Amino acid sequence: MKLSSFNAGTRPNDEKELMDKYNELSGKSSEELTSILFDEVAKQKREGTFNYEAIESVLERMRGSMSDEMYNNLKRMLGLIR
After folding, report:
1. Is the pLDDT of residue 16 over 90?
2. CB–CB of 21/12 below 8 Å?
3. Are 77 and 37 in contact (CB under 8 A)?
4. How many angstroms separate the CA atoms of 43 and 3, rounded?
5. Sign of CA dihedral 44, 45, 48, 51
6. Which pTM does this prediction carry?
């Protein structure tokens, strides 16, 4: 499963795919994850599939289940990819 399969309106086919992606990314450093994120964002922007508003909406819906620090970090990252 590619990160792009997590676009708004698209869901992973099953729990195994999600766990496979988690296992693939879980060993990566912060720098590696950031690089993967920026590469994926650039690709989606080139293809016209990047949806900032959808990502922002998900972040706001999840806000209550995360710490202020985590929310602020994600909000900062979101600002960087806009």
Report:
1. no
2. yes
3. yes
4. 11
5. positive
6. 0.70
